[in-house]
Write a structure and sequence with these properties.
Four Helix Bundle (Hemerythrin (Met), subunit A); alpha/beta; two-stranded antiparallel ribbon; globular; binds magnesium ion; binds guanosine-5'-triphosphate; 434 Repressor (Amino-terminal Domain); eight-stranded mixed sheet
Length: about 500
Amino acid sequence: MLETLTRGFRQARHKLGGVAELDERNVAGALSEVRRSLLEADVDLEIVRGFLERVTQRCLGERVRLVAGGGDGLEVSPGDHFTKACFDELVELMGEEAPIAPIDSGTRSLMLVGLQGTGKTSTAAKLALHLKKQGERPLLVAADVHRPAAREQLRVLGERAGVEVFARDGDDAAAICAEAVEHARASGLHSVILDTAGRLQIDDALMGELERIAERAKPEHVALVCDAMAGREAVNVARGFHRRFALDGLILTKLDGDSRGGAALAIREATGVPIRWITTGEDLDRLEGFRPEGLASRILGMGDVVGLMQDFEQVVDEETAEEEARKLLQGDFSLQDFLKQLRTIGKLGPLSELMEKMPGMGDMMPEGTQVDPGQLKRTEAMILSMTPRERAQVELLNERSRQERVTRGSGTSLSDLRELLERFGAMRELMAQVGQAGPGLLSRIPGIGQMFGGGPPGMPGSLPAEALAGLGPGTGNRRMARAQRSAEKRQKRQQQRKKQRRQKKRRRR
Ligand SMILES: Nc1nc2c(ncn2[C@@H]2O[C@H](COP(=O)(O)OP(=O)(O)OP(=O)(O)O)[C@@H](O)[C@H]2O)c(=O)[nH]1
Ligand SMILES: [Mg+2]
């Protein structure tokens, strides 16, 4: 997903590797990589220009040298500063989150429109399931009267989602929708989702029908379903649609199949209409609320902690998800926890996508690699071949003899094991860095604030620069070295504290 963009930003950051300070020349050099990837990702030239200008201004305009949390000195490198500027501008470009307001009483309806094959029918079902999970009682309405199979398709999907489907024979879509809304009101259903027919292009016949439906059913929301794989064409269609028909939201589908990501970046800017949801697969649970911070962070190869948490919550209860996230964020988790998480992860859907959401993981995957489920099995086998002490104290595994025993026991190679340890170390360190900065910082990451009882979730402040320090691309070895250094520091601090406590005790005696 969106690999083209990630590659561009990664190369840009590499270019800033040994730079002491950002200046016009090195920023322009780095941005030439970004420019290329944006164009390759099918983003409109005008939008690319504006974006690059704003990033440049951000890079050169503010000189930050932030030091977070007392002595350890998390200093912001030029690369971090650059990444932070890109992050802020990506978020700005993609717009705000736009969830529809939850409903306690009454009925609201939502009309899905779009060209043929963009994913209206499947998105209708996904959305119904999504709302149902939030405690609503939705109704799916088969408003595509042109294709007899469309009704059947919605019926099957509705059944799978466990949601009532309203379908009538006849060819008056507007009348069917009006009747469905009446039915929903009378039955106390919360939301009505109208699945309308698609056409190959925007034409008068299509617009006429949609207008008639809107007139009769008076939907509170009209969302255009856009196929992200269509790239710039999807953006053009959205523009054209919005000119003739008032939209109040967009749904981007098939982001899983879109390696370029141009539509995700440009569609909001081009139309002025916010993206409400995205879908990332054919399964009914592959719909999520659009979070620009999450997507920006993934584009920059930094993972998406909040998205990851939400995924976790789908398969474990909220409390377990919080507990696991808390451990993760405190850098206080062992390989045993890691294994538990991997098993949970097995239930979460495509592994490659999940890895992208893990800070530091997506970026470590060589380009173009597919994560194979076999890798999960190998990882599991290796962890199971370790002694409980080794799982709790991963440093023990620096010993060659232990490494050999584990690989023999699991039928893996030394390089498999080293890779696992490297990843584990990097993840632990990275998460600890984010965690160390404390609830104040975490509460600024939308969603996480609630976990710590901190500030309001979804603050537009986005990810602060401190959180980005060290989160960018780098080689596994450098990360490993850093992880070891910070583990040593932690150990030292613990020893010092112990010593102080002992001294205090002695003095009291
Ligand atoms: N990979 C992937 N496929 C998707 C996604 N959303 C929809 N699809 C697939 O896209 C195809 C078309 O989806 P539909 O929901 O039938 O599209 P539609 O807009 O209702 O099509 P018409 O009713 O013919 O206009 C189906 O094969 C879906 O499974 C997605 O997020 N990812
Ligand atoms: Mg359809």
